[in-house]
Amino acid sequence: MRAAPSPEEIRRRNLAVLLRHVHRDGPVSRTVLAERMGVNRSTILALTADLAAAGLVSEELPGQTGKAGRPSLVVRPESDRVYVIALDVGADRLAAATVGLGGAILARTEKARTTGAFDPDEVRATLAAMTRALIARAAPGSVCVGAGVAFCGMVRQEDGVVRYGPNIGWAEVPFGADMTRELDLGVPVLVGNNANLGALAERERGVGAGLADLIYLHGDVGIGGGIIMGGELIGGEGGYGGEVGHMVVSPGGRACACGSRGCLEAEAGELALIEAAERTDPPGRAAVEAIVDAAARGDVTARDALHHVGDQLGSGVANLVNIFNPSMVVFGGVLREIYLASAAQVRSRVALDGLRAVRERVRLRTSALGGDSTLIGAAELAFAAVLTDPLQTLARNVHADS
Amino acid sequence: MRAAPSPEEIRRRNLAVLLRHVHRDGPVSRTVLAERMGVNRSTILALTADLAAAGLVSEELPGQTGKAGRPSLVVRPESDRVYVIALDVGADRLAAATVGLGGAILARTEKARTTGAFDPDEVRATLAAMTRALIARAAPGSVCVGAGVAFCGMVRQEDGVVRYGPNIGWAEVPFGADMTRELDLGVPVLVGNNANLGALAERERGVGAGLADLIYLHGDVGIGGGIIMGGELIGGEGGYGGEVGHMVVSPGGRACACGSRGCLEAEAGELALIEAAERTDPPGRAAVEAIVDAAARGDVTARDALHHVGDQLGSGVANLVNIFNPSMVVFGGVLREIYLASAAQVRSRVALDGLRAVRERVRLRTSALGGDSTLIGAAELAFAAVLTDPLQTLARNVHADS
């Protein structure tokens, strides 16, 4: 039997719960917090005072509410003062951002990349330079409380080792440890699979808010999947579940970087679209947008390319709908643009191959976080420590900064 | 806040926990029960006495232990006295069994079926006749405490309505309610998807005992999937997840009963195998066994048919391995025979299409419950009530019988 938690343990847990509410939902009144947490207002008062003294939240009078009586103070996250570093290693770009408590992107920078093998040392140096430039622009007195990376491949959770990133030619790269050393922020740099992080971001603050059964598909050169079932991310035995980009949708089809043929990402990723559109652009969001624009202007080759890729994407989605019975499939990264330009093909394929009882309820949606669901997911990974033990984590990092 | 449980509630829960241990593990000593449950021996003594008085367990001296001192009495389930009815509606057979507490099949009967549309009334009448014959053979004074059906299609959990059974031509059949009325046992007849139940059975008492991340594939005319991730069955929004048989592995391929083409079950189910082997047998286990026998005797057509079907099956398995990163894939129903005769093809396809980090750890295994994992799963469904509240459930059913 475990002993009952001490009053100090209870206080620490409640501080974390309150901060998570404010972080996820933004400014919220003391009254509403008391209701949601099931504690009385004096407890909220004490918790808020502690968090405010640490500089994690502030309190202010709400706007006009139209209600009589003394208004309940609103608690808001100190977005400018407490932030994390969020990094995104895609097969066609590197991105970096500072993200404030509450989830707002404070500053953001991005470098497009051509594909092929990426040199890990160079990626690390580039991300470090981007990070240092962002930190230099952070508000005076602000505190970095964590760092997270969304990576386009298979990552071992425990230590941030990249097991396999076929589209950038990596295998067994100790990226988490390397980035921690390189950035030297006093916090570990956590690494996660980009689509898994995108799924969590869409469920926390995107189009899938609050859904228990959600599939997020992230496209760039590759296609990754983040699958949430019964409220939990599916990891499988080693945590590598969700590699839907390597589901074969066209046996014997286009060669895939993984060594197989006809994988979903080989048939519906950027390279397939660019080739079908008979273009020579380097892969990347710009290339996809150019093809979508051309199709909208009446370019038949571009339109047919989008329809072909949409049909392949639809085959993959239909399989996933039959396998998972999700309530929503979210298209993110360049799949957002591809889906919007080929929704009829995707939906038609789902109607043909999907079983009625599962397809009749599923909603197909585009990411509500624009191109940044993976980056926001990386920020959430980085915020995990402060949202688990706010005061300890903050004290550690304020100390590290001084 | 919820009030602390009363001593009576605690006793009822502990009775259920003890009975579940004995049901799952078979005869077990009081000492071991005390250790596993984390309670003292006098509590075990009292709980065992209550369960024994109700006729759910008995106690006996163990065999020679070689240890000094008074041996701990062994508690065993009253398998002959407390049983459930387990039914299995496959696309190629109807099966029925009485299964005793502890999971042993007491008596079993089966009727092979040719495929095509099944008349729900006739299925109901046939299963009812099989059930009555089994009950007539049950031990005098024994008690039926539940009934469960494993069904080869999509079933709504709450009310046992068959939403869709493509291979037997059913849609929206209120099978649970109909069977409850027909059998009139004083207990509801619960209905579940056969592959989901098979997965649970293999995890509880089969080759996947204790695994958290397991995929069970059940083959007859169709192929169903039961997917356990993080210890929980994947249901998705409506509980219809796991329809891996309708994952397209050969676009534009063989017509499937669902209306699509090239589905895994159309390419690797019984009908595909029989056709590839150039036979005219009606589908069923006998037909598959005849083809496997012929191949073993050197029949090249039979062997090539098995290899072809194995390759298709391997494609589906590779996709599932990439999507889920399971620690084990279990082949049940006729997929057991098909896998054993084409393991090289299945493994070769998984090696080609599976990503290294996920395929290197996955174990491919055949069902440890022979052809009966779905039937045993149906029994587990039926046992759920008595394993949740043993004395109440038993009292209700003894009363109903008298």
TrEMBL record, chains A, B:
* Superkingdom field: Bacteria
TM region(s), chain numbering: none
N-terminal signal peptide: none
Gene3D superfamilies the record matches = 3.30.420.40, Winged helix-like DNA-binding domain superfamily/Winged helix DNA-binding domain (1.10.10.10)
What Pfam families does the record point to? ROK
Q: Give the family this protein belongs to, as stated in its UniProt record.
A: Belongs to the ROK (NagC/XylR) family.
Supply the name of the protein.
ROK family transcriptional regulator
Instruction: Identify the species of origin.
Output: Nocardia callitridis
